[in-house]
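TASK: fixed-backbone design
INPUT:
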């Protein structure tokens, strides 16, 4: 496979549905993300404060100390968005060979974030776009706040490697890059040899993917000086319920 090093190939908001249908992915500028969410970009930038002080991820099987995160879950039906009771994040080993097969209970997202009008408008705006690609009754959404830092000298955004998530669509927002190199995004066609690599750098720019068609990963980060970090928001949209452990009582 030949990968070309490219600046992000941006898709205008009005072409998102067609790009997802044709290519299986789209990269969106921060200004167009704000347009999708029907908010001012400044309102989205203001949400980035909630990435400060994230709890450390206690489940890393490589023994690393570089990942911090919070997690929350939602349902969208029509124009109605509701947060659901806090629940475990679970993936099968088919989609996450490193951390799959276990219930991972992360600290919940802050109430000040999930009740923020800009947050709610963002989720509803994305659901509206995705309904143009796949019309569903209810979207089951998981939200992951990530900070990857260079405490160990290197931080791994995707320690599981190139993967799919077992959902319908994945939205990866780059919120901030501070004092780092690396963190290159790589996407591959799940059934072919096509691939792209690029570095998301603009705060609140977005990579939106059809998870059934695309495999993705991000390369490790290293500090340019003493310390650095990379903040992202990952939203997953699933049409047939949340992923739950077969032994779970979660609904």
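OUTPUT:
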């Amino acid at each position: 496979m030949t990968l070309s090093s490219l600046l992000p190939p941006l898709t205008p908001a009005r072409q998102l549905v067609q790009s997802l249908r044709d290519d299986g992915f789209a990269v969106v500028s921060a200004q167009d993300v704000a347009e999708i969410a029907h908010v001012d970009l400044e309102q989205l930038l203001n949400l980035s404060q909630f990435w400060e002080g994230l709890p450390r991820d206690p489940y890393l099987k490589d023994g690393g100390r570089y990942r911090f995160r919070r997690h929350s879950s939602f349902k969208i039906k029509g124009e109605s968005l509701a947060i659901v009771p806090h629940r475990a994040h679970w993936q099968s080993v088919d989609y996450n060979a490193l951390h799959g097969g276990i219930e991972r209970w992360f600290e919940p997202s802050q109430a000040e974030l999930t009740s923020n009008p800009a947050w709610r408008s963002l989720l509803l705006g994305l659901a509206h776009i995705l309904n143009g690609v796949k019309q569903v009754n209810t979207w089951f959404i998981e939200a992951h706040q990530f900070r990857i830092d260079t405490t160990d000298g290197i931080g791994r955004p995707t320690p599981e490697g190139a993967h799919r998530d077992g959902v319908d669509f994945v939205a990866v927002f780059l919120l901030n890059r501070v004092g780092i190199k690396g963190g290159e995004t790589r996407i591959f066609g799940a059934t072919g040899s096509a691939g792209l690599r690029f570095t998301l750098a603009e705060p609140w720019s977005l990579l939106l993917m059809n998870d059934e068609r695309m495999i993705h990963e991000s390369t490790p980060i290293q500090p340019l000086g003493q310390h650095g970090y990379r903040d992202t928001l990952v939203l997953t949209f699933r049409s047939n319920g949340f992923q739950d452990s077969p032994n779970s009582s979660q609904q």
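COMMENT: The longest helix spans residues 117-131.
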